[in-house]
Amino acid sequence: MKPSQLSSLLIKLLPANEPVLVQGSPGLGKTDTIQKATEKLGYDLIVTHPVVSDPTDFKGMPAIVKRGEGKDAIPGAEFLPFGDLNQMIEATVPTVVFLDDIGQAPPAVQAALMQLVLARKVNNHAISDQVRFIAATNRRQDKAAVSGLITPLLDRFSTVITMEFDLDDWVNWGIQNGMPAELLAFARFKPDLMGKFEASKDMKKSTTPRSVASFGRLVNLGIEDHEVLGGAAGEGFATEFLAFQRTWRELPDREEIYRDPTGVPVPTKIDVLYALMGSLAFGANEKTFAPTVKFLERVKAEFQVLCIKDALSRTPTLKSVPAFAKWAIANKAVFGYDNA
């Protein structure tokens, strides 16, 4: 399931108090997707990391207590809730408890969580009805120290969803989070390089959505050193991006296209076209959108769609520009006017 679909699903399931376990390879954006869905719902969020927790974190701290008053007091013992557990008990507003990297947690911690998630009660302390549980984990094949989940804990989750990389979702995320326009265009040009997690014992990072986001932040800082960029998202990714970046810098001036959208030559090389579509999407606004669309009419439909989609993601108000309505109707078959 792609991230946008997962977000929509969580917005339905969390209010219904249906716990969900999300699995997927490292760096896909599971945590970010879950956090954003929680924000959309307006719920409070408690993030816990069972892999670095102790069973007492989820069952309470053993303590000596006295029952009764004065001479009649009888010593006893009980588990006293503290920290995140105490928040779960006292929650008065809708709250999501996110158990991150749960598959890496040792069995003793998972056993403590079983009582928490399954019974919603810990040593006579009831978890607030306002609390919803969601968890995320990598998979065993990712070699991320995941041992799996004990069956009683796994069975408490209403469903187990596998999250997968989706290029459109990542580009849209990149637009909203300030990724370089040339990096987004490169992702469109080389989609096979994205989301390629490869477990390795060497100190080399895979090209995952998370590592490419780090890569993009370095590019925004003006860093072009191959070693530095290769250390962020893999040497192969850095090599191909730097070559693409040179193409980006040799693109036709957008201002020329705006002035003469029917006269500026349309590039024939595929890499240049991908770069140009990214550049035009980046520069699209209410003033430049009409000549941009005029130029796009001379480009293959698949490239038109990429440019228009990214332009709308960056500036949603372009949907109200007459040039868009005309283009959307003319390209209904490839764009989907209902989605416009």
Structure explained in plain terms:
The protein has 340 residues and is of the alpha/beta class. The chain folds into 2 domains: 3-162, Rossmann fold (3-Layer(aba) Sandwich); 167-339, no CATH class. The protein is built from 17 helices and 9 strands. A 5-stranded parallel β-sheet has the order 2-5-8-1-9. A hairpin with a 2-residue loop joins strand 6 and strand 7. The model has no long low-confidence stretch (mean pLDDT 87).
Concise overview:
This protein has 17 helices and nine strands. The protein is an alpha/beta fold and 340 residues long.
What topology emerges from the helices and strands here?
Blueprint: H1 3-13, E1 20-23, H2 30-41, E2 44-48, H3 55-59, E3 61-67, E4 74-80, H4 83-90, E5 95-99, H5 107-119, E6 121-122, E7 125-126, E8 131-137, H6 151-154, E9 159-162, H7 167-176, H8 181-189, H9 209-220, H10 226-233, H11 235-249, H12 254-259, H13 270-283, H14 289-296, H15 301-314, H16 322-330, H17 332-335
Parallel strand pairs: 1-8, 1-9, 2-5, 5-8
Antiparallel strand pairs: 3-4, 6-7
Helix pairs in contact: 1-2, 7-8, 8-13, 9-10, 10-11, 13-15
